Amino acid sequence: MKILHLETSSKNCSVAVSDGKELLCLCEERSDNYKQSESLHTFVEWALEGANITLRDLDAVSLGMGPGSYTGLRIGASAAKGFCFGLQIPLIAVNSLETMIKPFLGTDYDLIIPMVDARRMEVYTAIYDGQSGKEEQPTSALVLDEFTLNNLSDKKILIVGDGAAKAKDILNLPNAEFNDSVYPSAQYLTDESVRKFNAGEFEDVAYFEPLYLKDFQGVKRKGVN
User: Fold this and answer.
1) Partners of 29 in the beta sheet?
2) In this structure, what CATH number is given to the domain that contains residue 140?
3) Which of 13, 31, 86, 140 is most buried, most CB within 10 Å of its CB?
4) For residue 139, what is the DSSP state?
5) Does one domain contain both 170 and 188?
6) Are 91 and 101 within one domain?
7) What does the DSSP 8-state code read for residue 187?
8) Do the beta carbons of residue 55 and residue 48 sit within 8 Å?
9) How do 91-94 and 122-129 pair as beta strands?
């Protein structure tokens, strides 16, 4: 089962190829300039070469569906749809927040909370059990203030993602640790992608949309009505 995994929801443009759950190759680069449009197809080429397979060998494409950067998600979804249409293979979508908790499951945290910066005081987030990875609170857009998550103050919590930096300055959680260096990565799409492949949980390629959570907000140029 050869799967191409794409994760473009953040500053980390990430591509992986796996044979089932076995990771064959990973190509990724983190950039503040969001280089998905420049790097994604090059990374796909490198990842396939590193895995010693071709596009024709693929059985499915797995996509980190967000939430995250609107433009990054559009780029990733367009590429994934193109591969699926052209190769006549299924599309699998996985919540990008799930990839952020994978390295920390089974440690001594009661809860792991990924937070993606959504500008101003807002983050995209969900809450997961620190042992099983079970979703305890669904994905949502959350405005942070001093009272946010106070009901969890007795839990040992790990907050990860680029939204953790501002969360550390705002939240009143004495038992929380913060790690703002964690970004979604294609290498952690493998387990859920294989589960969905075996269960036949595929997306409708024609109508699939990423998990945006809110509408795109562009910057209006001066003098333009």
Assistant:
1) 13
2) 3.30.420.40
3) 13
4) E
5) no
6) no
7) G
8) yes
9) unpaired
Measured between alpha carbons, how far is residue 113 from residues 100, 147, 192, 211 in Å? Answer: 9, 16, 18, 18
Q: Which domain holds residue 43?
A: 2-96+184-199
In a domain, 218, yes or no: no
The residue written with tokens 């807002």 in the block is 122
Can the peptide bond before residue 174 be classed as cis, meaning omega within 30 degrees of 0? Answer: no
Residue 145 per-residue DSSP state: -
Question: Which tens digit of pLDDT belongs to each residue from 64-123?
Answer: 999 999 999 999 999 999 999 999 999 999 999 999 999 999 999 999 999 999 988 999
* pLDDT tens digit sequence for 39-50: 999 999 999 999
HSE (side-chain half, CA atoms, 13 Å) at 100: 36
Which residue is it, tokens 């680029």?
Answer: 162
Residue 212: CB atoms within 10 A of its CB come to 17
At 140, the amino acid letter reads S
